[in-house]
Amino acid sequence: FFRNNSDCSVLFLSPLHSGSRQFGYISVSYFNNNSIYDRYYLNFAACLDIGLNRLLNHDSIPAASVPKAAENSRTLKTAERYSELSALREKMKASPENFPNIETICTEAGMSRSSLQKNYSAFFGKSVFDDLIHFRVEKAKLLLAKSSLSISEIAVSCGYSYESYFMKQFKKITSLTPSEFRSDHS
User: Fold this and answer.
1) Which of 40-54, 72-86, 121-135 has the lowest mean pLDDT?
2) What is the mean pLDDT of the chain?
3) Is the pLDDT confidence value at 33 over 70?
4) Apex CA 38: angle with CA 34 and CA 39, to 5°?
5) 159 in the Ramachandran plot: left (φ > 0), alpha (ψ -120 to 50) or beta?
6) According to the model, what pLDDT value does residue 62 have?
7) Is the Cα dihedral 164, 166, 171, 176 positive or negative?
8) What does the alpha-carbon distance between residue 63 and residue 58 come to, in Å, rounded to a whole number?
9) What is the H or E stretch that residue 73 is in?
10) pLDDT exceeds 50 at position 180
11) Residues 52-66: b if buried by 16+ CB within 10 A, e if exposed
């Protein structure tokens, strides 16, 4: 596999199986993963590994010792948690200014900070705070392009207490200052 003329790498594709059970295919690379795979793929591979380990280890436990009701309730609880966090994520996307800190998000989710962070990253592949920053910057981009609000007013509208912090995060994500973005997109 070649990324460019000076970068030669090896990629190995193999069936993913255990005994006579076939699960699909997996790729193994012999180079810096960060140069090819994005974090979503790497997170997917890590989750796949955990899931297969659970599945394979589950096979060694006698079926009678794992009650069906417990298995179904665990699946149901995970589905409910995903649904709740998806709804929370949509609220954060629609109104990021209503979530000034992680404690507010924890209260809204009805979870402890560690439980929220663990579940959120497992479901969405990024931390709750990274997602909130992304939603704030997306809202700021829209306001910069479509409104005549001052940068200070936009910062407040997006949930920032300090204009300087807003400007720092905006530039970190977009590589432009809010003023440069406005000039390019208005």
Assistant:
1) 40-54
2) 78
3) no
4) 95
5) left
6) 44
7) negative
8) 9
9) helix 68-94
10) yes
11) eeeeeeeeeeeeeee
Burial class (CB in 10 A: 0-12, 13-18, 19+), 105: buried
Percent of the chain with pLDDT over 70: 60
Q: Can you name the residues that pair with 21 across neighbouring β-strands?
A: 18
Distance CA 74, CA 40 (A): 25
Instruction: Check pLDDT > 90 for residue 22.
Output: no
Residue linked to tokens 């380990």: 53
Q: Enter the tokens of residue 72.
A: 């179904």
Token pair in block for residue 30:
């012999």
The three-state DSSP-derived secondary structure of 130-181 is HHHHHHHHHHHHHHHHHCCCCHHHHHHHCCCCCHHHHHHHHHHHHCCCHHHH
pTM recorded for the entire structure: 0.61
Read off the tokens for 63: 């079926």
pLDDT at residue number 61: 42
CA–CA dist 41, 182 (Å, integer): 33
**CA separation for the pair 114, 82 (Å, rounded):** 16
Residues pairing with 11 in the sheet: 29
